[in-house]
Task: structure prediction
Amino acid sequence: MIKFIKVTKQFPTGIIALSEASTTIDKDEFVFLIGPSGAGKSTFINLILNRFNPTSGEIKVDDISITPDFKKNPATLRKKIGIVFQDFKLINTKNVYENIQLALEIINYPKDKIPLEIAKVLKFVDLENKEKLFPLQLSAGEQQRVAIARAIAGGRKIILADEPTGNLDPKTSWKIMKIFAKLKGKRTIVFATHNVDIVNSFQERVIRLEKGKIVSDKKEGSYTTK
Amino acid sequence: MKEILSSIRRTPYQTLTTLFVLFFSSFIIISLLFTLLFFTAILIKIETFPQVTIYFKPDTPPELIADLKESITNRFQVERITYISQQQALEIYRQIFQNQQNITDVVTKDMLPPSLEIQAKNPDDLYKIAQFARDKKGVDEVDFQQNIVDRLLNITRFLRKFSLATAVVLFITTLIILISVISFKISLKKEMIETQKLIGASDFFILKPFLSENLFIASVSSILSASILTSSLFYLSSFITNFFLPFGELTLSYYNIQIKIWPLSIDIIALIFSVSMLFAFTAASLATIIATKKHYS
Result:
């Protein structure tokens, strides 16, 4: 589903954010991406999203190959991906329903099936009856649940989560993780986090990054952050 | 529609700027277009009037006039050549001065000269016909309207160039103002657009709401400008008709399509609305595409 082949990303400032990274993430696999700040977790996620091209190497996402000279519109690639950000990135002028509707319209989801799909994903994140509320009328945890609903709506195959619990208190973080637990085995999930407790409780594959390099790639282990 | 109206409500001043700019530009352009068409139609009409008139001495025998008529017809390309006898001249005179009986009463047919009214196929022949007739026996005076035609031709040419230059300048100015206004609107929605792009929105998906909104404003402004122009023309119609009375009905034909310019007809009204909409729609779409491309592609 996602394959990194000797991927290096060097920014114009000279900083090497990712160096010769090679890994494969299978379909419906759940992978944690851990490491200290500046280790290259966000660069790893942004490369999958094609916010920028790699400096060298190749990234394969589903059937799309991203190389340094990749020039296609990233919209085609991003339609396959649902993304959950630390700062939620919900549109404050649209209500919960409209935020999810927008994501469905972007992937050309059949119009007549949109209400049903929205009801389904809102039920999945336990936010039924909140569809008419605007993001600023919701708690942080609820906003992140709307962001998850938006990411999974329409059956996007890959879910990228960039520190989704970073702005939440521990109790709310666990509620969010329960939702991700329900998605295990159903979607390919790449979850970047600092939270060791979350990583250890899930007992899933963990890719550890340090100074832009993959330093370990293990299944079901106990980890500590440096 | 709901989204368009809500966006207009959120940025009323930018909407008004777009509306006024499109309204004034399209109003000026359609007004110039109408004036140009009107004068072109008058020019064409004038070209159908007799262009050379040969006046004979009152006692000139009709046979001599007939001989000259025949030699002009043989020598030059003539569209029409008409003999006006002294009696016919008197009737025309009486018709022109029908409200001034004191003048018509004293004029008799012997006081008026017989004449030949000639309409040339080629305006370049006018001078040659005049020169040819001037020395002929019985000819008193030759009058030809080359100057009037030339003057009107110059006016129409100038009007055409002026209208084109004005249209280009107006279009560029409108485009620049609209790009600035739309860019401002885009910057207000910058975060929303960035999020949309991250979740897979194509360039067209982002462009679409801006385009719909500006096309809506363009349709309102163009309908408004065309309505105001046609209403003004209807209001002034009796004045214009009286002022240009000798020309009667004015028409133009392009590639077998006849457009009745005056009195106002459905043809010219449809043309005014179409040009107004075409201008506003082109300016609005082009400005939206340039503004969005500049910011987010």
Notes: The longest strand of chain A covers residues 16-25. The radius of gyration of chain A is 17 Å. Chain A has a mean pLDDT of 91.
